[in-house]
Amino acid sequence: MNVARRIRQVHADSVSPSAWRNGGGQTRELLTRPAEGEWQLRISLADITRDGPFSAFPGVQRWFGVIAGAGVALRFGQEVRKVTADSSAFEFDGAAAPECSLLDGPTRDLNLMVRKGQARMSRVQAGQAWDEPFDERGMFTTVAGTLRCNADEAIALPALTLVWDLGAEPCRFEPVSTGAAGWWLGWSALDGRRA
Predict the structure, then answer these.
(1) d(C-alpha 111, C-alpha 21), whole Å
(2) Alpha-carbon Rg of the chain, whole angstroms?
(3) Which range is most confident: 16-25, 68-77, 146-155?
(4) What is the pLDDT, as a whole number, of residue 2?
(5) What is the pLDDT of residues 114-133, one digit of tens each?
(6) 125 to 65, 152, 182, 183, 194: CA distances (angstroms)
(7) β-bridge mates for residue 171, sequence order
(8) Which residues have C-beta within 8 Å of that of residue 59, sequence separation ≥ 6?
(9) What is the rounded CA–CA span in Å between residue 31 and residue 39?
């Protein structure tokens, strides 16, 4: 099957940002499932420009990854978790609404939020195959590169692009530069991962 014809691509710059009510940043909503009505899956890119609380999302599991900037410190009561561009995706209960403090200036962050089902957000390892068996799979690039989801097909992708509907084939990403390349994203709506 031709993967390039099947996948959906969304470049962050093509999505208009929405300002936060607290004035601390803005969000670009890259993908929701379903597209209409109350979402069960939401992938977004946030620009955080000042300290302040996260919005509460009761009943939502969240994954948070820094893609640019020094990162943030998230305070959950007495516990503080630092998340930087070198950190793994940080998973937490969306109802917790932590207080967010910038470590050294603004950050840009990728968010995966799920109301139902199972999900995962994990770092792309350049050239290594990713084949976790979720019903829906995608990737967000932090640098330009080439996505390969079978032996014969290559898709050139710019930086800051979400690709979705990758299918079940193992995929790998070959970035044009060294360093953090992006994030793999997987979601199964009801029963978790496929058998």
Answers:
(1) 18
(2) 16
(3) 68-77
(4) 56
(5) 998 999 999 999 889 999 99
(6) 15, 20, 8, 9, 23
(7) 130
(8) 94, 95, 115
(9) 10
Q: What is the DSSP letter of 14?
A: G
Instruction: State the amino acid at position 37 in one-letter form.
Output: G
Residues paired with residue 109 on neighbouring β-strands, in sequence order? 46, 66
Question: What's the order of all strands across the beta sheet hosting 161-164?
Answer: 8-11, 161-164, 136-141, 182-188, 118-123
Confidence category of residue 179, pLDDT binned at 50, 70, 90: confident
Token duo for residue 102 = 């910038």
Count of residues in the chain: 195
* First-to-final CA distance of the chain: 22
29: left (phi over 0), alpha (psi -120 to 50) or beta: beta
* Averaged pLDDT of the chain: 91
SS (H, E, C) 28-71: EEEEEECCCCCCCEEEEEEEECCCEECCCCCCCEEEEEEEECCC
Phi, psi angle pair for 13, to nearest 5°? -70, -15
Which residues make Cβ contacts (< 8 Å) with residue 182, sequence separation at least 6?
123, 124, 139, 140, 141, 142, 143, 145, 173, 175
